[in-house]
Amino acid sequence: MHGEIPTVAVAGHICLDIIPALSHRHRLEDVLVPGNLVGVGAAVLATGGAVANTGLALHKLGVSTRLMGKVGDDFLGQVIIGILEKEHPGLSEQMIIKSGECSSYSIVISPPDVDRIFLHHSGTNDTFDSNDLDIAQLEHVSLFHFGYPPLMRHMYEDNGAHLEEMLRRVKKQGITTSLDMARPDPQSDAGRADWPTILQRTLPYVDVFLPSLEEILFMLDPDGTEYSLKAQQHSAVDGEILSRVSRQLLEWGAGIVGIKLGDQGLYLRTSLSEQRLSQMGIGFSSTIEEWTARELLAPCFSVDVVGTTGAGDCTVAGFLAALLNGMNPEDAMTRAVAVGAFNVESADATSGIQSFKAVEKRVMSGWKRRLVTVPLHGWTWEETRGIWRGPNDQKE
Description:
By secondary structure, the chain is of the alpha/beta class. It has helices spanning 28-31, 49-61, 75-87, 153-156, 161-172, 195-202, 213-220, 239-251, 274-277, 288-291, 311-324, 329-344, 356-363, and strands at residues 7-12, 15-21, 41-48, 64-68, 70-72, 96-98, 105-109, 117-121, 143-147, 176-180, 208-209, 256-260, 266-270, 295-298, 380-382, 387-389.
């Protein structure tokens, strides 16, 4: 890694999150009523999207981070840049500010203990394409993470031509690539895009693919004909479904597949090919043998949940930070769900994130894990590691 501290570039979707404070008395069936005036607490203004959430989480963990999102020159864009600069001066230096375009925003409805609802405007994210990526800005970057192409029109149009071109150019530099997704509105253009084709043409250039379960099931099976609609809601998900989905993604070219399972944890499946893993790029310094042909599931840690905004993004940040630190799969997954647990202890996406050293200390303190209710037939529990090993795990 050029003898330097590894640097991550985080590109893709960024927006302003407006998060009204809700309490346990705010039930969704009472809040979402036409004509109803609902008293709430003070709003939190925070940056959202993969660039802000994963990028700021990596920065707080102590990873050298460059943010490469796109905003307009409007008031919302000024607020987004101001929040980034308040977090750390210079953090927004490589952000793109486009004259005459509207910045993206979301209104986040996030009651305690309930998954959040987003009212979202894509804004400048829809005009981001491969031409916005300046390869010169990736000098000394070890890992390139891109987030939320389903919420970025030019990234899913033409069957992902811009997404493929961007990732291909990055891989040509020998940089490790990581890709995160978002679940689009099924009735939108993104929801009707040919995601199997997009994945087949882009995954050969993706070293680490980190979608959520809902996202990837929708992309592979939008009608629910293969996995059933119940599976998209977790109630019929089991280890066999995870195995089938991950095997398909690996066959399409990904080196490492991590599937976020919400409060059930993080599932991992890696390539059977040492040759594929040898092409992971300069951001992957772990022993290839440790990562070859692995299948694991890391349960979440027990915490009092305040909000879930950005939980998946922070889990991704924890995984990437561990990968850059050369950790093995078991330790990387544990750190990933640990950072996700830090996140949900706060209402917004990143204020709960602490240094990687603080994460390590809490993990080593005997932090209790949550129970996994996903059926894992044929799996083995490793008490000392706090990890489930799957039937496809080939670790000796």
